[in-house]
Amino acid sequence: MCHSAVSQKIIFNAHIIADHVHVVVQAYRALQKIRIRVMNTGL
């Protein structure tokens, strides 16, 4: 069961939000994974 489903069962009026800092961190991590994969394959 994912985090949001658990939150909705426990806290009925909960709203799922994402602040800009966490969105940027997730985007950075995703780009890092792609960059490392490309570097390791020699493209």
From TrEMBL:
This is Transposase.
